[in-house]
Write a structure and sequence with these properties.
By secondary structure, this protein is mainly alpha-helical. The protein has a domain of 60 residues. It is built from 3 helices and no strands. The longest helix is centred in the N-terminal third of the chain and has 31 residues.
């Protein structure tokens, strides 16, 4: 039988754990606050579009910093098509407004 030996965290590890927990609480808390404020000030579709735009810009920036190439422009239509398909499925309608079965 193998027994695990428990080791107590060092003061540095304990401090990092508390800082990490605090960061998660602040980030999640401000996210919910931000959603609440934006839903009161703008339409939900506009808010969702802005979130997609900001997320895309952050991902492109991250790729550029890492030196990764962007997908060729010939693939951008397919990428946008995936997003439109996901959006229409989530809404329950197709592009022409008919219900998706």
């Amino acid at each position: 039988m193998i027994r695990a030996v428990a080791t107590l965290p060092t003061p540095r590890e304990r401090r990092l754990a508390y800082l990490s927990w605090t960061a998660v609480c602040i980030i999640w808390g401000t996210t919910y606050l931000g959603i609440r404020i934006t839903l009161e000030t703008m339409p939900p579709a506009l808010m969702a579009s802005l979130r997609w735009l900001i997320a895309s810009a952050l991902l492109i920036g991250y790729m550029r910093v890492r030196g990764e190439p962007l997908p060729p422009s010939s693939r951008w239509g397919g990428i946008a098509g995936c997003r439109n398909t996901a959006r229409s499925t989530w809404r329950g309608t197709s592009r022409n407004g008919r219900p998706v079965l």
